[in-house]
């Protein structure tokens, strides 16, 4: 599915975490995924993690008494993701379109002259 997104404003990064009880049920997970897409969010990275209880407790403990920092959390889940590079290179392409959603990869990417590819 290819669409053109034209926005005069820069896109913002949002981190969505889907908890295990939703992931455990394929129909619920698909409904959550469709809700994200129907609300016109672009999915630019996706990752499945299996955390032990201790890892989850540590993650939530670090954030329970502070203002959530999206940059810090994105870096925790996607250590190779460069927010600066994304804003400089990928964001303008995604904002101005055309944009292609790849169901296989579960992410959106810029659809350039050579066809869909990573932004």
Topology:
Layout: E1 2-3, H1 20-23, H2 26-38, H3 53-63, H4 70-77, H5 83-96, E2 99-102, E3 107-112, E4 115-116
Antiparallel strand pairs: 1-2, 2-3, 3-4
How would you describe this protein?
The chain is an alpha+beta fold and 119 residues long. It is 42% helix and 12% strand. It is built from five helices and four strands; from the N terminus they run βαααααβββ. The protein has helices at residues 20-23, 26-38, 53-63, 70-77, 83-96, and strands at 2-3, 99-102, 107-112, 115-116. Strand 2 (99-102) and strand 3 (107-112) form a beta hairpin. The chain starts with a strand and ends with a strand. The relative contact order is 0.21.
Q: What descriptors fit this protein?
A:
119 residues, alpha+beta, 4-stranded antiparallel sheet, 5 helices, 42% helix
């Amino acid at each position: 599915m290819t669409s053109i997104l034209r926005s005069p404003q820069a896109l913002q990064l949002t981190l969505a975490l889907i908890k295990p009880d939703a992931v455990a049920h394929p129909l619920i997970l698909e409904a959550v995924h469709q809700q994200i897409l129907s609300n016109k969010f672009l999915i630019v990275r996706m990752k499945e993690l299996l955390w032990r209880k201790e890892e989850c407790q540590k993650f939530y403990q670090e954030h329970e008494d502070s203002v959530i920092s999206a940059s810090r959390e994105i870096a925790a889940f996607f250590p190779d993701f460069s927010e600066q590079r994304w804003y400089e290179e990928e964001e303008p392409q995604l904002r101005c379109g055309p944009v292609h959603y790849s169901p296989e990869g579960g992410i959106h990417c810029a659809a350039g002259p050579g066809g869909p590819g990573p932004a």
